[in-house]
Amino acid sequence: MEEANADHQAPDQESGKIAAACDVLRRLASSVGQQVIGRDDVIELVVIALMADGHVLLEDFPGSGKTTLAKALGETIIDDRADSDKAADEVPIAAFRRVQFTPDLLPADVTGSAIFDAGSNAFQFRFGPVFTHVLLADEINRTSPKVQSALLEAMGEKQVTVDNRTYPLNDLFFVIATQNPLDLVGTYPLPTPQLDRFLFKITMSHIDRDAELSVLDTWQSRRSPQKRIQVSRQHVLAARQIIDKQVYIADSVKQCLVDISRQIRDDDRVIQGNSTRSLVLLLPALQVRAAMCGRDYVNADDIDFLLPHVLGHRVELAPGAGSFDAVLKDCMKPAMEALARSTMKPAA
């Protein structure tokens, strides 16, 4: 009898966990929205990427609020553990770090380096800016490929190796990289392997008139200290685990993603299709988006919303092929129609 009651209560308990995870997502978005006006769509994608353990590449114009967005997100996440709860050898982690990438930057300027300490007569590792929750890699295409590649291990494996010793990064290590889509003089285009490390590529446009007026009206109040919504690091990690375990992905959804990818790769208008890794990175993002919408299962709306941002920087079109959006729409149509005829909800 007790077991029956426990089984009967399980769905309510699981829905409560998802509701708690959704609350963390809303608080993150609300906190960033206090500082960044008119960018609700970008904030939503950035929060999805953070919770899905991905990274974001922004194409934007100077002065569009990218630094404010990244700093607001970093300062929203706090580590509220007591000092006694932290390991003695734990790597110090900052909330937010910004690196301005330039042609003369060195890999050690990003990862850190060993510095000789005369007092101890030994080399001590000085931690670089990658040891943070949120890293803003500003104008990442302005630095050399050698420095760009220094981020590959950090983004892919959440660790850096210096002088044959590996240092772990924080579980929430999150990169927001930017590049200017217009000023290409003296830049080093990101190679395909590094582009593939970014979950989303987001192309930002200028905010609308009302939002721009609101920015001018509130700039002084937003500069002054104010009470900000904050979320603990532990709650963010817990929400990530809840979404991973409780949001259902049907086999038909996975089949749809594979069929779309194969259709793209076989299309005559495409020179290079997307990798399998892009689909692996997409799955947790679909789960987070479903949770944001109050669902415990992924559906076609989630795919339609996220797929352009996931594939836009991975698919290379042939000259004269037209727009990427048109090609993607054509390739998605058969698989999405098949998905619409299937059942995506978890079994009761």
From TrEMBL:
<feature type="domain" description="ChlI/MoxR AAA lid">
    <location>
        <begin position="273"/>
        <end position="316"/>
    </location>
</feature>
<dbReference type="InterPro" id="IPR041628">
    <property type="entry name" value="ChlI/MoxR_AAA_lid"/>
</dbReference>
<dbReference type="InterPro" id="IPR011703">
    <property type="entry name" value="ATPase_AAA-3"/>
</dbReference>
<dbReference type="GO" id="GO:0016887">
    <property type="term" value="F:ATP hydrolysis activity"/>
</dbReference>
<protein>
    <submittedName>
        <fullName>ATPase</fullName>
    </submittedName>
</protein>
<dbReference type="GO" id="GO:0005524">
    <property type="term" value="F:ATP binding"/>
</dbReference>
<dbReference type="Pfam" id="PF07726">
    <property type="entry name" value="AAA_3"/>
</dbReference>
<dbReference type="InterPro" id="IPR050764">
    <property type="entry name" value="CbbQ/NirQ/NorQ/GpvN"/>
</dbReference>
<feature type="domain" description="ATPase AAA-3">
    <location>
        <begin position="55"/>
        <end position="200"/>
    </location>
</feature>
<dbReference type="InterPro" id="IPR027417">
    <property type="entry name" value="P-loop_NTPase"/>
</dbReference>
<dbReference type="Pfam" id="PF17863">
    <property type="entry name" value="AAA_lid_2"/>
</dbReference>
